[in-house]
Amino acid sequence: MSVIGRKPLLSMLAASIAAIAVPAVAQDGAEPGADDAATATLIVVRGEGLPETPAVEAYDVQVLDHRNLVTTGSGRIEDALGSIAGFQQFRRSDSRSSNPSAQGVTLRALGGNASSRAQVLLDGVPMADPFFGYIPFSAMAPERLASARVTRGGGSGPFGAGALAGTIELTSGGYDLLGGLSGHALVNDREETELSATLGQRLGGGFVLASGRWDRGQGFHTTPVDQRDPATARARFDQWSGQVRAVAPISDTVELQANGLVFRDDRTLRFKGANSSSEGQDASIRLVGRGDWAFDALAYVQARNFTNIVISSTRFTPVLDQRNTPSTGLGGKFEIRPPVGANQNLRLGADFRMADGELREDAISAFSGAVTERRNAGGRTTDLGFFVEDDIKIGALTLTAGARADRYTITDGFYVTRNAAGTVTGDTRFADRSGWQGSFRGGVVYDLGEIVQLRAAAYTGLRLPTLNELYRGFTVFPVVTNANADLENEKLEGYEAGIDLTPGEGVTVGLTAFDNRVKNAIANVTIATNLRERQNIDAIRARGVELSAGIERGIVSLRGSVAYTDAVAKYAGNELDGNRPAQTPKWVAGATLAVEPAKGWLVSGTVRHVGAQFEDDLESNVLPAATTFDAYARVPLMRGLSLVLRGENLTDEDVQTRNQSGSIDLGAPRTGWIGIGFDL
Known about the structure:
With 680 residues, the protein is mainly beta. The chain has one domain: Maltoporin, Chain A.
């Protein structure tokens, strides 16, 4: 297995940033005499990708701006995204108190396992872990972001393979938003801390931004009081991340962007010694052209790792040490937009993604503490996609259609076991697989004046099984879940129709009805008592309605959304046939009321409701419905300084995040934060 180490990756990043900074500094230090003319035509870069085309209006799209992202009670990006009904992690807990490998993301109740069925992009780069498919939310600080665009429904554009349930596009802030020195320092009522700072500097027509964030704390007890014992531990967390962005103009229409992200996340869950860690070093280079022949060229590399220690829930000693899970993500894309007319937008391109990784773990006797078996498993997947999308505007009518052709491979799969002395006791090599799969999306938008817009869309999509699903089994005592190297690709078929209303200034309403079906959906299927296996079930079908609304009037704004989804698992001849998929509620809703009484002031409150859901495929364990209330306030103190107050779960609702036959985990209790924000 080839895994790119930290030093080469960081060296590549440093060289890329230096290459960008040099021409930018050269502009800053132009020869005297040429200054006046150069300054008059100084090029200011954007630091973003190409703009969306009118095709996006055909789909159910919600956009969160910078203010929406940073004014949450928790300060976590996953909670900001949770304001869009239909967004869901595998579990209800956030990235401080869940196992990182359970942080899969889905939309429209198309869940059922911990892998992501929605594609999450940061500045165009897929963020899913190459081995597990989870999203490293703790590495993506909301204060570094300019916006988040969430498209519910299958995608077949760039990196469309994996966008089975939709696409979440995160865009980092540029100099206009984050220039100078900004950040915050907060402490909560458990003496936990959150520190963040960003420093931005213009270099000629470009800029460099460097930011860091550090969150740490003792955490809270996820275990209910009546289930605690001497081995019970708080959900301790220690998380940091750093990001560097450098952007410089190459010409009056072309800019070069270099991004680097490093992060480390250490957590403890439920028992003393049940420690996990995840870390990553990501780098990307992007060339964006905004001329007549607009283009977007991107290349990236990711080095990730994960460790985890499993503690026996009866003897409270280690029983499994997942000591090393190195993985590599590698890929890129090229997209070009030829000039085809003022009322038409054509996109042509290709993208590539490779995921390579392996698991190294030791099984341990709960009685003697000795290693009983050493396991090594892994493989590689690749996807090469070719895409085309075209939209044309004819009066009040916009038509759009797009297609992808994906060449995928699943190769080098293996599972090896050794005894404590290192002698091989089992060596299984899995057959390589490859194939082509096509997908498409298309839609229509009709404007009925300035108030009403009608839209309809249909789409297909695919998702390759992750290396984790193919080759790594796991145990949540007493339930064992086996891997399955024969898993097939998931395939989506869906359609939707909606109406968008603008009945008055600052008032928006959107309503969408959808019907999505995931064929060959990968689920954890019960095959015996306390034994499950990952299998392709016939389908998961989700039908429902999504409503969103917003009002902005003077100093007051109100926005909210609600989603109802009737989701059913189909698996002929199995007990789960006709059941609701695991971890998928019927009702999800949220609303935020914000008031800005004066410049620099902001007070907001957010209420969220998540309906009841089942822990497992057989609907034997219920997670009750939960409603929480969060608050945020920013009060100016003096120029550049503000008092920041935040509150999480202010009603102290018991939010069950896991129910394993009565063994319960809880989400965050009532938590208050206070601190200073600065923007100098």
